Amino acid sequence: MSRAALIALGLAVAPTAALGFSEPERYAEPAIDGGGGGRYFTGAPPDGLSCSVCHGGGDTPEVKIAGLPDRIDAGKRYEATLTWPDDGRPYALTLELIDADGAHPAVELLNIVDQTPEMRCDGNPTGPSAAYQVDLGTRRVIGVRNCGAHALTVVFTPPSDEDLFFAVGVVASDGSETSTGDGVLEVRRTLTATQTNVACSVGGGDPAALALLAVGLAAATRRRRRALITRSRPRARRRARRTPAAPRRGACDQRRR
Q1: What is the pLDDT of residues 214-239, one digit of tens each?
Q2: If residue 81 lies in a helix (H) or strand (E), which one and from where to where?
Q3: DSSP secondary-structure letter at 246?
Q4: CA distance 250 to 15
Q5: Among candidates 59, 53, 24, which has minimal Cα distance to 41?
Q6: DSSP bridge partners of 64
Q7: Residue 100, C-beta contacts closer than 8 angstroms, at least 6 positions apart
Q8: Number of Cα atoms under 13 Å in the Cβ half of residue 115
Q9: Which of 35, 66, 102, 240 shows its CA 20 to 30 Å from the CA of 188?
Q10: Are strands 180-193 and 71-72 parallel, antiparallel or unpaired?
């Protein structure tokens, strides 16, 4: 039996798991016991599966993502915020941000004192954060418990000029304690790194910078040609002065006579 089938079987025999794993510990539990078998269903390549492997049939959750750029710069700090409506359905989500090697780029949660009521359980301004993070080797999974929150903010700083991959899986449960009838949203995006070396990124460089580079190279070539021509002229004159003049035919004839 495949691992995906085993996970599905585990969810089928454990009804409480159908609520989208409201407790983070459930993801690490064996699939036969209704857990995730070590998977967090983010949809990222290292995880391999997303929420739709088990959940489905309900209305797609309306999740808005703000602050997630299409292009990223190394060393710059970014804040991405996800929000979803208070439509009476319990929400849970897991997300990842990774590089080509599957490592996370120092992705973190906001400090608890900076989290808004929407980011806390039941919207309580002084309540606990609904968000959590789990480190899995070089990976870091960010999740939201099913406790009445309606927003999540993650902070990250790209460490190098490499593309990053963003993946999130969201489940809006219908409360039936089964995996059918739940709404599922899967988002996958590639955040393209901005190339800083113009000379080595001709295909994706700034057109204005490339034009200036071409003009500079052309001017340098012209100056070099002028210098070579100027240096060659005195040599030509010196060679001309060293060459002896040919004797006149009349003088030779006179000596012979």
Answers
A1: 656 666 666 666 655 555 555 545 55
A2: strand 78-83
A3: P
A4: 126
A5: 53
A6: 83
A7: 162, 163
A8: 28
A9: 35
A10: parallel
Read off the tokens for 194.
């901005």
> What is the pTM for the complete model shown?
0.67
* Helix or strand holding residue 245 (H, E): none
* Encoded tokens for 128: 């606990």
* d(C-alpha 8, C-alpha 14), whole Å: 10
Tokens 């990774």 correspond to 98
Measured from the Cβ of residue 149, the count of other Cβ atoms closer than 10 Å reads 29
Report how far apart, in Å, the C-alpha atoms of 100 and of each of 39, 97, 139, 173 are. Answer: 19, 10, 12, 32
With H, G, I as helix, E, B as strand and everything else as coil, classify residue 199. Answer: helix
User: How far is the C-alpha of 148 from the C-alpha of 85, rounded, in Å?
Assistant: 10
pLDDT bucket at 52, cuts 50 / 70 / 90: confident
129 strand-pairing partners: 120
Q: 61: closest CA among 69, 70, 51, 71?
A: 51
User: 56-103, pLDDT tens digit by residue?
Assistant: 899 999 999 999 999 999 999 999 999 999 999 999 999 999 999 999
Report d(CA 49, CA 31) in Å as an integer.
Answer: 14
